Structures are given as C-alpha cells and as structure tokens.
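G., before I forget:
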Amino acid sequence: MTQQDALFEYLLRLGDTSLALGHRLSEWCGHAPELEEDVALTNLALDLVGHARMLLTYAGEVEGKGRDEDRLAYHRDVFDYRNHLMVEQPNRDFGHTIARQFLHDAWALELYERLTSSTDANLAGIAAKAVKEKRYHLRHSAEWVVRLGDGTDVSHAKMADAFDRLWRFTPEMFEADEVERTLAAAGIAPDPDSLRPAWEARVDGVLAEATLPARPAVVGQTGGRSGRHGEHLGYLLAEMQYLQRAYPGATW
Amino acid sequence: MTDHPAVWGPEPGAGPAVRAAWDALRTVMDPEIPVLSVVDLGMIRAVEMGDGGRLRVAVSPTYSGCPATGIITLEVARALDAAGFRDAEVTTAVFPPWTTDWISEEGRARLAESGIAPPPRGAGKRALVAPDETVACPHCGSTETELVSAFGSTACKALHRCRSCLEPFDSFKCI
C-alpha cells in the first residue's frame, strides 16, 4: 500500500466518522429535551460536519481523481463508508446520545491533539483547527455524563444502560491495520493504540465522578473502518443522500 | 502550538493595488454579525498580486461549522470584482487556525456596542479548559454574570445572563 493510498483511506475514516456523527446529532434538531441543548447539539453537529468537509475535501485531493467533498459524501454507498460503528448507532434517548458523544469526544480530542504534529502539513492544519472545537465538545459531553450519572435514579440507570450498549464499539477506535501502520511509520498519524491510555484515563475519571459503573474489559465489534457496517448506516445515508441521489448534481 | 500574529492590513511596502484591495475587503461584513468586517475579524490572511496581475486573497475560516463561511468567500470575491479586481483568486487558508485573538480592537468595540461581549484577549487557550471566569455584561458592564450555555445562536457565540441587570446576552466564544 502506497503512502498516498493509506492517507486517502485514513482521511475517509476520520471524515466519515465526523460526518455520520454530525448527521446523527442533527437528528436532534427540534427534539432535544430543552432549548439550550437543542442549540448545543446542533452546534456540535455543525462543527462535526465542518471537520468532515475539511477531511473529505483533502481526501479528494489526495486521491486525485477529481472527487470533491460532496461527491464523497453523497455518492458513496454503505460499503464505501469508513466510519466507526459507534457513531452510526441510532440516537435512542438523550443519555445514549451523550454517552456516545463523550466516548467519541474523549478519543477525538486526544487524536487531534496528536495530529497537530503530523508530518503532513495539511492534516496538521485541519487538526489544529478541529482541536479547539473538540475541547468544547468534550467539556460539554463530560459535564452531561456527570450531571445525568450522578442525577436521579432514572437518569443514572439510563446512563449505565447507554454505556453498557456502547462499550463493545469502543475498541474499534484503537485498531490499526496497514493504513494506520503505514502512516504511523511516516509520522503522519499516531499509532491508534497509543491513544488508549489517555482515553481510558479521561473516561475513567468522568465515570467515577458520575458515580457510574467502571469501564469493563470488552471484546469489540469492529468492521466499520473497512466498510462492514450494521443496518443503521444504510438508513442514515438514505436520508442524508436522498437529494443528490434523486437529483444528481443538483445545486442551489 | 506557536502563536501566529493577526493581519489587519497591507504591509508597509505594499503597492496601491493591494491597498485598494484591502479597502474593498473592509466593506465585506460578516452576514451573521453585520457590525464586523472580514478584516476586523482577522479572516484575511494575505493579499498579494500574483504573476499576470491576478490578485490572490487568502481567507482563514473562523469556526469549522460556520455556515457563513461559504457566503463570506463569495462576498469577498464580489467586493474585489466590484473594486476592479476581475477574476481574483480567493483561497481558504486553514493553517494557521483562526483565533478570536485576531479580532481587531475596533471590532471588539463594535461587538460590545451591539450587545455582544467581545472575547477576552489571549484567552483562546485558557477559556477552553475552564469556563470563562469573567465575561462583562455588554449592557450594564457588571461582571456578575453566568454562563447559560456554551452554545449560542451561531457557532461563534455562547449564551450568558447578567445577574445585575438580569438581561441575557451573547458573548463571542474564544477559540
């Protein structure tokens, strides 16, 4: 695998993960439990879609076949999407959305911090921009984990249930194949497993403060990074891509 | 990360064309905060005359998710065109990342006048790890204020409430 191929694939993995999660959060628009949270979740969605735009635009440039961000976002099907399985999971309730966001944010913040020193100047530039916003995201999701975990009996039980459902998707964030190994050797991206200690420390600290059960050792369910998805992503894409599928190339 | 200085105008030795371009750019306002020009915001990173007399302008996007970025780039191109710079090349410069520290003094004053608390200087890093300590109320000047939500009506704003005059207000969020 050439370095160029690896970089293209890696950018899809990051970009698709941001895009799928951004789309999930946008589903809360008009439905959040309170007005401030409706605004907050959609702000997070905007940031994530913004990160996806930068990453997919760059992916298209690296690929060099003339595909731009829209082409990549709207004209690839499920098997060509490379996002983590965790972010395509349905929102379920607000606590589940927050737990998923927190587990992702704690990973993404650590990753972007490391990517700011990437030997690839474009990727380092994107990371330097994204890292500022991820700090806000993590602060927000972590505060909610504590508020709900250490809240009422009902909110505590819902958060514990949400984390129970999500743990199995977390090992995928730290997996490496030839793509990550090629880039790690070139100093372009960190070895995913090296992000784990900081992620675990952050997650464990917040869970303890939230009086939630400790993080269990899990065997992960993976595959998203190589295009093996659950059924949920198809529905997500069907909605997100509808307009460009029905009217290819439409602009306004 | 090293700090990158703000750019608010032409370099001392710049030619008349580049100066004229900067003047044209000062008329391009942020569509979501119309009291601020793209120059006040520190979004214009470079204006230079390329080979063949084609003007090149580098625009630094503010918040990654800001939906106004596309409009702003379009408005920049239109203002340059109206000022006689046909076919100017407007590029996006993601690095160095835009920071609220690049908002000019005039811009800060205009934000406060329009009821939006300007971001504290040099706070880009501090404000991210801890809630902003003191945001003065743009209505009455009191520092007895509280953060209602870190996410406001646009990507760049947070929502606060003044405990002295009881008015809600927006602040420009530090990044």
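Chain B has a mean pLDDT of 87. Chain B touches chain A at residues 1, 61, 63-67, 94-99, 124, 128-129, 148-153, 155, 159, 173, 175 (CB under 8 Å).

More on Monday.
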